[in-house]
Amino acid sequence: MQKIETTLSHAKGASVIIAMDRNSRSTSSHDVINRRAKIVEEFLMSNQLHIINEESCYTTFRSSRFASNIDLTVTNIQALDIVRDWVISGQESCSDHSVLKHVLGMAHPDRQV
Hints:
Strand 3 and strand 4 (67-68) form a beta hairpin. The N and C termini lie far apart (32 Å). The chain has helices spanning 2-11, 35-46, and strands at residues 17-21, 49-51, 61-62, 67-68, 71-76, 83-88, 100-104. The radius of gyration is 15 Å and the shape is globular. The protein has a single domain, classed as Endonuclease/exonuclease/phosphatase (Deoxyribonuclease I, Chain A, 4-Layer Sandwich). The chain has a three-stranded antiparallel β-sheet, covered by helices on one side. The protein contains two helices and seven strands. 19% of the residues lie in helices and 26% in strands. The mean pLDDT is 83. It is α+β, with helices and mostly antiparallel strands.
């Protein structure tokens, strides 16, 4: 969390997008909640960061023992409108973590968002 605070400090109001494996589970990422997740969520709220994960039939992590949504995509308020169409891909991955996809860029002026 210290590295994220340092990054935000250096960004000085610029758009920030963070992909994180928080190794905790929470209802904010459409999963059950545990104690570690509460700490992470409090940290995100205190730094005015927003989780952009969307609910999905897929999970961000799958092993032979369990599956959960422990991976997050987080933005500050400046980047909130830049990240769109966030999804957990069903495509094969060489990892126990799923491929997360999203579109970056401002909405087209003629497009309804």
